[in-house]
Amino acid sequence: MDATGTDEIRMATEERAPQARCTIFIVSDATGATAETVVRAALTQFERSDVALRRVSNVRHPDQIREVVEEAARVDNGIIVHTLVSPELREELLTASRRRNLPAIDLMGPLLTRLENLLKISPLAKPGLFRHLDEDYYRRMEAIDFAVNHDDGRNPHDLPKAEVVLVGVSRTSKTPISVFLAYRGWFVANVPLTPEIPPPEQLFQVDPGRVIGLVVSAARLQSLRKARLERMGYGLQSSYIDLRRIEQELRYSRRLCQERGWAIVDVTGKSIEEAASEVASLVRRSGS
Q1: Residue 1 counted as domain residue
Q2: pTM passes above 0.85
């Protein structure tokens, strides 16, 4: 096989579920990120978690197609999902998968054919064009990955790299606001605040204009925490939902924000979108 062979198409990502019931091979002539996003979105509709994902990128040669098909045929319940733009590679995959009686789902071909009929022009069939045409998409993917890896105080050494750092006590919507902003391309981290536990030192290295404190009314916060405990099956006899304790936590949070010069957003009665927009506006206004 030539230089486009095995070594360069190793799995870009491989996520194994214990005793996977099904293995999905995500095959692409580019990065495969788009196909993986579609597959993950579809999997959220199923309660099962025993599905393994393997992404195979930069597939440009029929030999690579045959190799992937053979590998998928060797595992239990292998499935191929692909976004190949080349008609020749799609045909090769269809033929090879049928020969091995292997399910193969074409995410790109039917759409290209339909668009060709509607637009009366032929597609370019050049791999990787999406990457060049939509850099914002890849930034969003990177931002989402950053938000996930820096949620709830994780990896504090990276805090200075964040464009926005949300701080607040438990259940002040730090995570959903982080994810919402990440989908819009912001690199966001969030850090929980607790009176008894000092924040990580790296937080104080971040430009104050990029740190936003989230607060909510004590009554609303108590209601949110009660709902969380009930959902988790815990009893309600806990300082976590004690109103005086909650008020103490909120006072601590506000005082810390004021001392450090961090702006505060009150999320009481606001949707995630409203709160996220206010956060973004404050960061832009600070020029940080």
Answers
A1: no
A2: no
